[in-house]
Amino acid sequence: MTRPVAIVGAGPTGLMLACELGLQGIGAVVLERSPEQGRHSYAMGFHARTAELLDQRGLLDAFLPETPTWRGNHFALFPLDMDQLDGPQPFTVAAPQRRVEQVLDERARELGVPIRRGHEVVGLTQDTDSVRLRVRSGSEEYDLTASYVVACDGGRSTVSELAGISSGGTPPTVSTLVADVTGFDTERDLVSMGLHPRGQFAAIMTEPGVLRIMATEFGADPASDAPVTLESVIDCVRRVTGAEIKVSEPRALYRIDDATRLAESYRSGRVFVAGDAAHAHYPMGGQAMDTGIQDAVNLGWKLAAQVQGWAPPELLDTYESERRPAGQRVCDNTRAQLALMVPPERVGPLREVLTGLLELPDVHRHLLGLVTAVGTRYGRDGDHPLVGTRLVDGVVARAEGDTPLAHLTRSGRGLYLDLSGGTADTETAARWAHRVETHAAEPVGDAAADKILGVLVRPDGHIAHVSTAEDAPGVLETALARWFGQADHR
Ligand SMILES: Cc1cc2nc3c(=O)[nH]c(=O)nc-3n(C[C@H](O)[C@H](O)[C@H](O)COP(=O)(O)OP(=O)(O)OC[C@H]3O[C@@H](n4cnc5c(N)ncnc54)[C@H](O)[C@@H]3O)c2cc1C
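That's the FAD-dependent monooxygenase sequence above. Prediction below.
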C-alpha cells in the first residue's frame, strides 16, 4: 500500500504538518525515532504569527488563558514594544516545546493521522512515482512506500541527506553553555537577560519550576567539546557577570552554538524538507520552532492539493519560493543580532546607531515583524502591496458579527471576503465554492481607505488576491485558478 504522505519526525514541525494534512483528509503517517515523546523543552514559547496560525486552526485555546504570555520582545537585546504590533495576538505565548508537541500530537491523532513512535527511517530511494523508506523498529526493519515524504527530522536530518539535499552555511563563532535547573531561589532576582563586556548571560523560566541558565563567554573556543557540567556553567556565569549564582538539580546540561545552515533546496523530487531539517541557527529570540510550524502550515494545504489531484501547476513549487527566503531571513536576523553583540569592544557605536533607529516607528515595526514573523510576506514584484501579507482580525478586515476571522479558516479552506457591502464579484468566487468559502466582512485601515472590494485568502491565512474597482475583467478568476485549481463546472 502506498501512503500519500510520510512525515519523518514528530517534533513541532512534523506534528503541525500532520495536523494540516489530517485536516485536509490526507492519509499521512508520522514516523518518529524516539519511542516516547521528548521530556525536554528546547523552545520556551512561540511568537505572534505562530499564535495566529494556531488560532486559525482552533489550537490556540489549548494554551490560553492558562499559559503566561509575554508582552516584551527584543532584537539583539534591544527591547521591542509589542504594543506596536497589529493583530489579535500581540504577545509571545510562553508554552514550552513539550506542551506544544503534546497539543499537536493529540490533534493529529484526532484527525486520524497515526504517529508511529520507535520507528526510525534508515534508508530512502525514490523514482518518478514514489519514495520508498526503509524503517527500523526495534529489531525489525520494513519498507514503507509513500507518494511524498517530508523530512521534519531536525537539525541532523538523515532524510535530507539520504535525498541528496545539501546545506550551506557558516561555522560557529560563539558557543553558549546551557543548564536547565530545578534548584534555584526565585526570590533572588535571578530572572534576567543581559550583555556584559565578557559575554552574555540569561536566566529565564522555561516552565513552572524550571530555570534555564545560558552563559556565553566571548572569545571562548566555539568548537570546544569539553563536557558541560553544572560547575562549568556556574564558573562561566562568574567569568561573564562577576556574580555567584546558586543553582542545583540540573535537568539538562548542554552546549549550543551559532553555526548556521540553510538547505540549498527545500525539495528533491518527491522529498521535501521543513523545520530544523531545512534551517538551523543560533536560538536568538527563540524563532526556530515558529519557523518550522510556519513551514508546515505553508506546505500542508499545497501538498494536500497535489495529493488530491487539483493542485494548479507550480503550486507545490511555491513552498520553496516562499519558505526558503523565510528560512534565510531567520538565519540572517539571528546572525545580525549576534553581530550587534560580539565583539563587545567593537559593537558599541553600532548599538548607539540602532538605539536611535529604534525610535523610528517604521524601524521598530520592521524588526518586530522579523522576530515575530508577522512581517512575512509572500508577494511577488508588481503585486498589490497586501498580496502575500497575513489576514488576521483587525488587519485589513474584520469579520461581521461576533465571529472572529480566525474561526472562518478552521476548515482549512480558502476564503473570499466580500468587503464591499455587496458589489464584490461573489458570483465568480462561488464557482470555486468547493474550495473557497465566501463571507462578508468589514474593511479595516488601508482596505477601507483604498475601497478594496474583496480579498482572496489562502488556507494558510495569507492574501492571494485583492479585488479593486479598477480590476480588469477576469483577474479574480485567474487568481482563483492559480491558487485553487479549476472551477466547479457542475
Ligand atoms: C538551547 C535551545 C534553545 C532553544 N530555544 C528555542 C526557543 O526559545 N524558541 C524556539 O522557537 N526554538 C528554540 N530552539 C529550537 C527548537 O527547539 C527547534 O527549532 C525545534 O525543536 C525544531 O522542531 P523540528 O520539528 O523541526 O525538529 P525537532 O524538534 O528536532 O524534531 C525532529 C524529530 O525527528 C526525529 N528524528 C530524527 N531523525 C529521525 C529518523 N531518521 N527517523 C525518524 N525520526 C527521526 C527526532 O527524534 C525528533 O523527534 C532552541 C533550541 C535549543 C538547542
